[in-house]
Design a protein that fits this description.
This protein has about 210 residues and is α/β, with parallel strands linked by helices. It contains 8 helices and 7 strands; from the N terminus they run αααβαβαβαβαβαββ.
Amino acid sequence: MNPEIENYLGELISHLDSPALIEMESFANKNNFPIVGRLAGSFIETMAKAVQAQRVFEFGSGYGYSAYWFARALGPTGKVICSEADFLNRDRAEHFLTAAGLWDRVDFNVGMAQTIFSEADGLFDICYNDVDKGDYPEVWLMCKDRIRPGGLYIADNVLWRGRVAVQHSVDVFPGWTQAIRQHNQLIFNDPDFDSFINPIRDGVLVARKKIA
């Protein structure tokens, strides 16, 4: 995205500042920790509110940055089920989300996201995918039948800094670009979902499960 456009969009949501959010973003900047960023964060919050989500599963939660936005949308009766491999990030998430008054809306699990998901019961209003990109097709196939009609599948990094659109690109990790391409094609070819990619940040895919 053109930096001037991104700055302009950022100014429009500057009123969303909070001490906890600023602290989370400062931590990311200081430690080069990948987060969805405020533009994508406010977007997924809006999507969650649009479908009146009450139950969200996150594949890959880091230290709770995306969970912050989902938890804001769900309200006090909702729950974000987080999955993260690093115990330290779980502790960081508790610190940040407690400061934001949102920790009671989160069920934070440490372990492999796919395993935690397979052990969870029922349908979800939203499944959010931000794990290792080579796992994206697998996660989509796990999720598609666990999303309630009218619910959403959301995935970050689906443009992969433009690599998906380039015939010969240099991959960060072998096979990841091809995995994201496969993931995107699977979703856009699925007749049970209406799909769209919002090109903010690194591309945020939203697929809505059709209501029969």
